[in-house]
From TrEMBL:
EC number annotated for this UniProt entry: 2.5.1.48
Entry keyword Aminoacyl-tRNA synthetase: no
SUPFAM superfamilies associated with the record: PLP-dependent transferases
Family statement: Belongs to the trans-sulfuration enzymes family.
CDD domains, per the entry: CGS_like
Protein name per its UniProtKB record: Cystathionine gamma-synthase
Pfam families tied to this protein: Cys_Met_Meta_PP
Annotated keywords: Pyridoxal phosphate, Transferase
InterPro entries associated with the record: Cys/Met-Metab_PyrdxlP-dep_enz, PyrdxlP-dep_Trfase, PyrdxlP-dep_Trfase_major, PyrdxlP-dep_Trfase_small
Length: 381
């Protein structure tokens, strides 16, 4: 099996050996019978340490991203925290973009910085700024790349940044949540690790919270595996099952998300009340050429600024009928959010503060015409 869509359906998902069930059963047990002290059947002892349903998901994730191993966690932030703890030490440095997900910045700034980690925030699209942030970096340095970014849809050149990071001795991590492994393959572009909120496109149905780390290095994979076991922020068997079920349709969903988002973005350009549309699929987007080079298509996320400022942005976000006002993203249904007071409230007053005229759209798989009409009527309101 070599093509993505085939692997998404079958990798790590062999029919059950005992019954022939095409979909492997959900192993909801907490513990496993032993045939003698230390003589474990199939290597399973206790579900914090290993569970067949979670293992199936992890095999699938590693396969889709081309990693040596993948580990599934209870949330995206739990996955990020495990990776950071596995690699960092007091005195280490994290270099991240000035438009990353607010929760990621909060995790490093409020949890890891008090532990003694340095945090440097730069514009990842400015190569000179990144190079400067890496100068004199300690031995343990992480270059944290998010592309497309949340919510301003900035694009970073993964291959270029990986080369720059490695020249400085840094571990290069890519948050690939917005793109998913179907649209973008960071490990093949030189990254050392990929992180996901599997809550989003991988799960795809707004019914499960989870996270994952996929790694290219065996030693770091072992360190993350230990923290998954030792700290215990694992995904439950049922959450692993739901995520695996979602991944089976990832390719076809991402095609529809991308096509719909392109149609929505083009319809909003020049629309009354719209100051600017942020979507890498638009030819005038500053990162369009880089995105076209490293992505299969441009994804389902976009943002826009309203010419009426904060008041207009809030009214618009509260006036849609098909788009649901809610946090999160990546589900089959279209969502609308006001990042300044919702997803990015934790970074207000910092260098990552989101302008208050910005509205973020997670474009779902509904009929594109209905989505465009809904946004048009909201703008009229």
């Amino acid at each position: 099996m070599t093509e993505f869509s085939t692997r998404a359906v079958h990798a790590g998902q062999e029919p059950d050996a005992g019954t022939g069930a095409v979909i492997p059963p959900i192993h909801v047990t907490s513990t496993y019978a032993q045939d003698g002290i230390g003589n474990m059947r199939a290597g399973y002892e206790y579900s914090r340490g290993g569970n067949p349903t979670r293992d199936g998901l992890q095999t699938l994730l590693a396969d889709l991203d081309g990693g040596v191993a993948a580990y599934s966690f209870a949330s995206g932030l739990a996955a990020e925290d495990a990776l950071l703890r596995a690699y960092l030490e007091p005195g280490a440095r994290v270099v991240m973009g000035n438009d990353v997900y607010g929760g990621t910045h909060r995790l490093v700034n409020r949890v890891h910085v008090p532990w003694g980690v340095q945090l440097v925030v730069v514009d990842m699209s400015d190569v000179d700024a990144v190079r400067g942030a890496l100068e004199g970096a300690p031995a343990k340095t992480v270059l944290w790349v998010e592309t497309p970014t949340n919510p301003l849809m900035k694009i970073a050149d993964i291959a270029g940044l990986a080369e720059l990071g490695h020249a400085a001795g840094a571990l290069v991590v890519v948050d690939n949540t917005f793109a998913s492994p179907y649209l973008q393959q960071p490990l093949s572009l030189g990254a050392d690790a990929v992180v996901y909120s599997t809550t989003k496109y991988l799960g795809g149905h707004s019914d499960v919270v989870g996270g994952a780390v996929v790694l290219a290095d065996e030693a770091l994979a072992e360190a993350v595996a230990f923290l998954q076991f030792g700290a215990g922020a694992i995904s439950s068997p049922f959450d692993a099952f739901l995520t695996t079920r979602g991944i089976k349709t990832l390719a076809v969903r991402m095609e529809r998300h991308s096509a719909n988002a392109q149609a929505v973005a083009e319809s909003l350009v020049g629309a009354p009340g719209v100051e600017r549309v942020f979507y890498p699929g638009l030819a005038d987007h500053p990162g369009h050429e880089v995105a076209a080079k490293q992505m299969r298509s441009f994804g389902g996320m976009l943002s826009l600024s309203l010419s009426g400022g904060a008041a207009a942005a809030k009214r618009f976000a509260e006036s849609t009928e098909v788009f649901t006002l809610a946090e999160s993203l990546g589900g089959v249904e279209s969502l609308i959010g006001y990042p300044s007071e919702m997803t990015h409230a934790s970074v207000r007053g910092t260098e990552l503060e989101v302008p208050d005229d910005i509205v973020r759209l997670s474009v779902g798989i509904e009929d594109a015409g209905d989505l465009v009409a809904d946004l048009r009527q909201a703008l009229t309101r």
